[in-house]
Amino acid sequence: MLRVRNLAVHFPTRRGTVKAVNDVSFELNDGEILGLVGESGCGKSMTLLALMGLVPYPGETVAGEVRFQGRDLLKLGRDELRQVRGRQIAMIFQDPLTTLNPVFKVGEQIAEALRVHNILKPEKRGLFSRSASGTDAIREEVIRLMEAVGIPAPEQRLEEYPHQFSGGMQQRAIIAIALSCRPHLLLADEPTTALDVTVQAQILDLLRQINQKEGTGIILVTHNLAVAAEFCQRLAVMYAGQLMELGPTEAVIFDPIHPYTKGLLRSLPYLVPKGSPLVPIPGSVPDLAQLPRGCPYSSRCELATAACWEQSSPWVEVQPGHAARCWRST
Amino acid sequence: MSKTLVAVTGLKKHFLIQRSLITKLVAGAKDQRIRAVDGVDFEIHRQETLGLVGESGCGKTTLGRTLVGLYEPTAGSVTFAGQNVEELKRKDPLAFYRQVQMVFQNPYASLNPRKTVRDILSQPLQARARYNPKGLEEAAIRLLEQVGLNAHHMDRYPHQFSGGQRQRISIARALAMQPSFIVCDEPVSALDVSVQAQILNLLRDLQIRFQLTYLFISHDLSVVRYLCDRVAVMYLGKIVEIGDTEDVFNQPIHPYTEALLSSMPQIKREPVRQRILLSGSVPSPLNPPSGCSFHPRCFAQVGKICQQKEPELKQHASGRLVACHRRNL
Ligand SMILES: Nc1ncnc2c1ncn2[C@@H]1O[C@H](COP(=O)(O)OP(=O)(O)OP(=O)(O)O)[C@@H](O)[C@H]1O
Ligand SMILES: Nc1ncnc2c1ncn2[C@@H]1O[C@H](COP(=O)(O)OP(=O)(O)OP(=O)(O)O)[C@@H](O)[C@H]1O
Ligand code: SF4
Ligand SMILES: [Mg+2]
Ligand SMILES: [Mg+2]
Q1: Are strands B238-244 and B321-322 parallel, antiparallel or unpaired?
Q2: Residue A290 within any structural domain of the chain
Q3: CATH of the domain at A228
Q4: Which of A152, A205, A280 is nearest residue B194 as measured by Cβ atoms?
Q5: Ligand 2 within 6 A of B165 CB?
Q6: In total, how many domains does chain A have?
């Protein structure tokens, strides 16, 4: 469905070039849910934004290829790209409170998304062909979408403003907007991070239903490994702008290859018995403007050897479909 | 010495939102009362870690702040080592604030950006005892070392530290008073997992070393399960269940606890237990529902009584306290 090759996003800064996304390659199969996990600042959001052609200034996508439905999205003109964004790929941005406009009613914002995407041509959708005016059709579609994402009493709530919605309901409205174009691919950047676990469970359940019913492919960005482990079929682990490991969820969680993945899992309280200490990863993340010559994890890795310090590490497929970027797996 | 360090009885903390006279006269607006903490009774034992969990807005921070004397209770009382906190605050505020400290969620906002680490630590140190300059310096360095930093960090400003280091500084500041009770309000929520592990280990080490008692507020249930001896579950200003952590996680009794724990994402091989998806959203503390405040979302209602009568926190088997009319266990 989607093939990303050697994607790179750079930010020029006074300290040097920040390599926010560094040679990232992965694929998303039809109808698949892929998790992109990693700690704050490792480049998850920039990866998604690059796919959408939305890297913020002064950042720039300096290399790579993003194949989607036979075309390289990075080569498309602005208008063509906007078409793809509106119709086939939708994104849920990281901060929900900035994506809903506080001065417009929620229903209007969903209707606006429908209008922009020009989705509602009466002849296209039998259900609406009987309604005389386009506005009625749009209103009905708004209600249908709000219902689909589980907003109760949509007829009334479409008249409300975002601040009258709880956090979880706002996130549902945002998902409704993302779904308004009936996307083939949904990029969801931390869609549940600001929410309570009970609401998180509802939203993930909703996304899973959309995936199963409509076959929508999903890339879920999250820093929460447990969420990713439960929700995704495959996981991609990112560190300092690079993909460190990629494989089936089970394998990555219970049979990790890369020392960073192992370190992350050991520092979580899930797999450690009560009373015994957690094992934190020593040190801290390198400055993305001054990356070491070799593996970006070498400064924190207990298995690092001379090769790790000196030369960038190779991408090795250890098991079919399960690969890592590490000298130790060669 | 009794095993109870902090005892809370009938505690309420309401916030009044006052409307201006004009809006009252013209628009008929009324003052509003937010029942952030609305009648809680519980105890915190010496040297334990009591977890406090519940949805956003249920009153966890307000409760924590009331316990350390940052808010005055609207009703009810808190005793600390057998003495009433409001009285302690009146008689000898310094002695009280020496005993209880709070570590906040956001290590970025809770440290003054214009002060160096030296200033940040010297202030509470001097409040506690008299130091000569050399002694003060040594005491500050000792604090830094206790939280895994060192003398080199003394003259730096908060923005020159990472999030984890800043949280270490907040913890050092809390320790400066040599407290016996610390309320940790989401101390690791803003941190990355690899750093979170460092801070959790630190909190545990310090607890053993200084015989500390913690109230540990967190929305991360996996952290609570790992760290806390007992856990209290809060819903809309009230405690609905409290008991030993493992018992509660293995067999929640209150329907809300059940739903909350079932939503917890897990890393384990066995299939995930059946999720209980709650319908509706958290009601407003401005106008809590009648009877059991969980009843509009409850999947286990046992009849009219749930809508009419507020369930009391009652003892169940194995010392668990639960506030629910359902008694099929
Ligand atoms: N304008 C900018 N100038 C320089 N560097 C930037 C700029 N914007 C982002 N970056 C850097 O790009 C890197 C990747 O950022 P990104 O937002 O993708 O991280 P993330 O993995 O989504 O983190 P989080 O989990 O915190 O959302 C970060 O290290 C960040 O510091
Ligand atoms: N100083 C205040 N004035 C007015 N209302 C307040 C004040 N502090 C808290 N509240 C309200 O009291 C209720 C409880 O808030 P509190 O911060 O204690 O919740 P919490 O459980 O800590 O939530 P979170 O998990 O989001 O931190 C909320 O409805 C909040 O809006
Ligand atoms: S008292 Fe009734 S409504 Fe409340 S939790 Fe128990 S069963 Fe549910
Ligand atoms: Mg991000
Ligand atoms: Mg709080």
Answers
A1: antiparallel
A2: no
A3: 3.40.50.300
A4: A280
A5: no
A6: 2
Cα–Cα distance, B37 to B60 (Å, whole number)? 8
A319 assigned to some structural domain: no
Domain stop point among A154, A181, A208? A181
> Does the structure show a pLDDT above 80 at A10?
yes
Does a structural domain hold residue A324?
no
- Other C-beta atoms closer than 10 Å to the C-beta of A70 total 5
Query: Which chain A residue has the Cα nearest residue B218?
Result: A196
Residues 6+ apart with CB under 8 A from B43: B4, B6, B7, B8
Burial B133-149 (b: 16+ CB within 10 A, else e): eeebbebbbebbebbbb
Contact A197/B at CB under 8 A = yes
**Judgement on whether residues A116 and A42 belong to the same structural domain of the protein:** no
Query: Least CA distance to B224: which residue of chain A?
Result: A269
Mark whether A191 and A275 lie in a shared domain.
yes
Sheet with B238-244, edge to edge strand ranges: B100-103, B181-185, B213-217, B49-53, B230-235, B238-244, B321-322, B314-315
Q: Do A163 and A223 belong together in one domain? A: no
Q: What is the ipTM of this complex?
A: 0.84
User: Where do the H-state alpha helices sit in chain A?
Assistant: 44-51, 78-87, 96-99, 106-117, 126-129, 134-148, 154-157, 167-179, 197-214, 225-231, 249-254, 259-266, 306-310
Q: Report the relative pairing of strands B83-84 and A185-189 from DSSP bridges.
A: unpaired
Q: Cβ–Cβ of B56/A269 closer than 8 Å?
A: no
State the number of CA atoms in the 13 A half-sphere of B135 facing the CB: 6
Asked whether residue A187 falls in the same domain as residue A53, the answer is yes
Domain annotation covers residue A275: yes
The last residue of one of the domains, among A156, A181, A206, is A181
Q: Could you tell me if A266 and A159 lie in one domain?
A: no
Instruction: Identify whether residues A18 and A154 lie together within a single domain.
Output: no
Task: Give the residue among B207, B164, B210 at the shortest CA–CA distance from B187.
Answer: B164
The pLDDT tens digits for A176-226 are 888 888 899 999 999 888 788 888 888 899 899 999 999 999 999 999 999
Pair of tokens at residue A66: 């993003």
- Is B36 touching ligand 2 by the criterion CB < 6 Å? yes
Range of the structural domain that residue A203 is part of? 1-88+183-279
| A129 in the same domain as A196 | no
Give A 264-283 residues with CB within 8 A of chain B.
264-265, 267-272, 274, 277-281
Provide block-wise average pLDDT over 10 residues at a time, chain B (329 residues). 92 87 74 90 97 92 94 95 92 89 82 92 88 92 89 89 86 92 91 86 93 95 95 96 96 95 87 79 83 94 93 88 81
The residues, any chain, with a CB within 8 Å of residue B21's CB and separated by 6 or more, are none
To which residue do tokens 């969990």 refer? B53
Q: Does B260 touch chain A (CB under 8 A)?
A: yes
Taking only the tens place, the pLDDT of each residue in A141-184 is 899 888 888 888 888 888 999 888 877 788 888 888 888 888 99
What secondary structure letter does DSSP report for A311?
A: S
**Cβ(A259) – ligand 1 distance below 6 Å:** no
Peptide bond before residue A58 is cis, with ω within 30 degrees of 0: yes
The string of DSSP codes covering B17-60 is EPPPHHHHHHH----EEEEEEEEEEEEEETT-EEEEE-STTSSH
- What pLDDT digit, counting tens, does each position of A83-138 carry? 888 789 998 888 655 678 888 999 999 998 888 766 554 444 444 334 445 678 88
pLDDT value, residue A119:
54
User: What is the overall mean pLDDT for chain A?
Assistant: 88
- Write down the pTM of the prediction: 0.88
| Statement to judge: residues A196 and A161 lie in one domain | no
Classify residue A158 by its DSSP letter: T
